[in-house]
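Async update (no meeting this week)

Hi team, since we skipped the sync, here's where things stand on the single-chain job. The sequence we agreed to prioritize is pasted below, unchanged from the tracker. I ran it this morning and attached the output directly underneath so nobody has to dig for it. Comments welcome in thread, and please keep replies under the output.
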Amino acid sequence: MNEIELRFQIPESQWPAVRRWVAGDARSTPVQERLQASYFDTVDRDLAHAGFALRLRREGEVWVQTLKGAAPDGMTRLEHNVPLGAEAPTLDVARHADHPAGQALQQLLARLPEGALQPLFRTDITRLSRSMRTKFGTVELALDHGALLAGEGDTLRSTPVSEVEIELKSGEARAVLEVARQWAVERFGLTLELRTKALRGDLLARQLDCAPVSVSSALHWTGDMSRDDALHVLLRESLEPIVGNASQIASGRHQPEHLHQLRVGLRRLRAGLRLLAEDGDVALQALADGAGALSRDLTVARDADAQAEAAWRVAMLAAWHAERPSAAVESGTARPVDVAALLHARNVQGWMLAIIGWLARPAPETHEDLAIVHARIDAWRAAADQQIKRFDRLDTEGRHHLRRRLRKIRLALELAIALPGGAAGARLSKKALASRGRLLAQVHEAQQRLGALNDLEVGLAEAREQLALAMARGDVPAAAQAGFALGYLRPRQAQALEKAAKAVGRVKPVGRKG
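Output:
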């Protein structure tokens, strides 16, 4: 069977209200039970890497062995349950031999040493559940409260569980989406959780705070894809980098790379949606606008991370310390941004639900081609050409705008590099592919050079602001360091500008062959 569900984290402030909702009114018949489970994997987490979760769980007085597969659309997972009775059982993967997920698991285990599976962590959950009927079908609401546990005795570790699951029991997948939107997001302001209990338990067993970063990798559309095929690939491959990384950030703990890859995923999704959206396609345009808005909201936080990690900043602070060993070091004035709070916003969570909703919708009967893509890329390139021609007259803001435009073109070229056709209507030959590859490399280098220049110019602006503030309050040491920063950065900014100008000048204009 396929399990279609969405999961949301519940903040402590909303727990009473969500519990009342799940408990229902006098006409409802909620069920409360205790669920205790052990999860199995190899020491190297081979099952987790392949998208499997394997457990033995006591549900009331009955034990059940369950195997779950990956969820490529954020809400649908392969699931196979085997009831085992009241006696405490031992694990036997052969119980899933007749199920597709079990067959895939057997192939994986055949490559591993015998006896590699072992219990890594366990759960102790109290679940309150009831059915809820909607116009699109019946869902089950399951309120889970308890803990994930790893280790024993003095080495026992735990992490709390407080979440609600909305699972489809009959009807259409949009029954889950509508309940999630109306209640979990709009009513209670809950946040989507793509990190399963299996993943969070594995992190606990490894004594890690954060899930691995979901990397946003380049996507390539091919000539045999319809417009809807291309959209499905784009949304499916954007899901983990966007919603997966957002789940980790929303938990309150994350690494800078989670935020970076989230923004890369947002930019890649936005570029792809703009390539695919036809004139008047309000729904896709809204999805693209949502990606752009969230990316802009996250810019300040990501820029602060990038500035803190910049190699030139480390070198500059080392040079300042070498010149004045006894001087205090001011690392910067940037105020921290509450990124988790940005992601908790109802409009952001609703937008993420919309991505999952698009993936869950039935495939259309018509199959439009991707002919519009090349014309759009050429239009974007023509606009960039106009800025490139007057690059020497662009100010800091103009160069920043060109960098963003080239980044959009690069992402679009990555998607369309294998699509036949184009402005000349030529078939895709090895020569044409090589030409597109050269153009992609030219755009990428120009964007990277402009990015390095932009980082230095942001540093210069920050140093000017620090100098003005220090002088206004009579802080001589801070003013001295800010003045040093200006002297250090100006020649490097000039060098970066020269390199950026050369890279931008190599970008092939629209219509030029080779």
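Quick observations from my side:
The longest helix spans residues 430-472.
The longest strand covers residues 118-134.
Reply here if anything looks off.
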